[in-house]
Amino acid sequence: MSLSKKNPTARLKKIPVGNNYLWWRVTSIIVVGAMFGSALFSIWFIYSNIYTTISNTAAIAVWESTPSTDAVDITAYEQAQKNLLLKSTTTEWPANPRDIFNYADATTTTSATTSTTL
């Protein structure tokens, strides 16, 4: 308090003047640029996805209005019928399957290695 009573301009010298607002200017330019970039990206996204989907839908509607016959692959149809028959048949499980989770029951105790002496 005594400093301000003696020299009233001393408080004014502590206020930043000049180039101290450069950081805020750069930050605001970056923020505005990011907003502009996101607006351009949104316009591109809407164009590339929505409008092309609408045009593709119109093309499909035109294709549906022109009747035509499709060629049927008889060999592929017969193979699919055979695969369906194989799917409907059941397989028989063996009466005593091997227990793969119990090592002692699934292995034998005989050794299969041989040694040769010179």
Characterize the structure shown:
Keywords: Membrane, Transmembrane, Transmembrane helix. The chain crosses the membrane at residues 21-47. The protein has 118 residues and is an all-alpha fold. It has a domain at 39-64 and 71-78. 61% of the residues lie in helices and 0% in strands. The longest helix has 44 residues, at 22-65. The radius of gyration is 42 Å and the shape is flat. The termini are far apart.
Question: How many beta-strand segments?
Answer: 0
Q: Return the average pLDDT rounded to an integer.
A: 77
Terminus-to-terminus distance:
108 Å
Q: Name the overall outline.
A: flat
Total of DSSP H or I helical runs spanning 4+ residues: 5
Share of residues in strands: under 5%
Structural class: mainly alpha
Give the topology string: H per helix, E per strand.
HHHHH
Could you tell me the radius of gyration in angstroms?
Answer: 42 Å
Flag low-confidence runs: none
User: Share of helix among residues?
Assistant: 55-70%
How would a crystallographer describe the biggest sheet? none
Keywords: Membrane, Transmembrane, Transmembrane helix
Transmembrane segments: 21-47
Quick take:
The chain is built from five helices and no strands.
Produce the secondary structure layout.
Layout: H1 2-6, H2 10-13, H3 22-65, H4 74-88, H5 103-106
Keywords:
118 residues, 5 helices, transmembrane helix, 0% strand, transmembrane, membrane
